[in-house]
């Protein structure tokens, strides 16, 4: 018997080269960005990328691919069910 409602496979990958080039797949939406911080909604949750002189080199929401260049300092997934107050604090600053 064939399954009529198959589950969607989550596909999300990060490839970083020398902390200066970042290729990301599975991006659903770019929430916000500037030269120091990006906030992306991915298939694996919200992802923040912090750094210096960050800029979007390539964006295709049809394929879910984003390329970012600049010096990457940190990357962090935001998940309220695991981080509680810390996640709410970051969302509170972003979505004032």
Automatic annotation (TrEMBL):
GO terms for biological process: sporulation resulting in formation of a cellular spore. It comes from the Bacteria. InterPro entries: Spore_YabP (IPR012504), Spore_YabP/YqfC (IPR022476), YabP_sf (IPR038705). This is Sporulation protein YabP.
């Amino acid at each position: 018997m064939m399954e009529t409602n198959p589950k969607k496979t989550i596909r999300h990958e990060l490839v970083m080269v020398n902390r200066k080039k970042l290729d990301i797949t599975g991006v659903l939406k770019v929430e916000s960005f500037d030269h120091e911080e990006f906030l992306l909604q991915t298939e694996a949750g919200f992802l923040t990328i912090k750094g210096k002189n960050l800029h979007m080199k390539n964006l295709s929401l049809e394929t879910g691919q984003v390329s970012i260049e600049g010096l990457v300092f940190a990357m962090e997934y935001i998940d309220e069910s695991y981080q509680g107050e810390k996640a709410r604090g970051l969302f509170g600053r972003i979505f004032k």
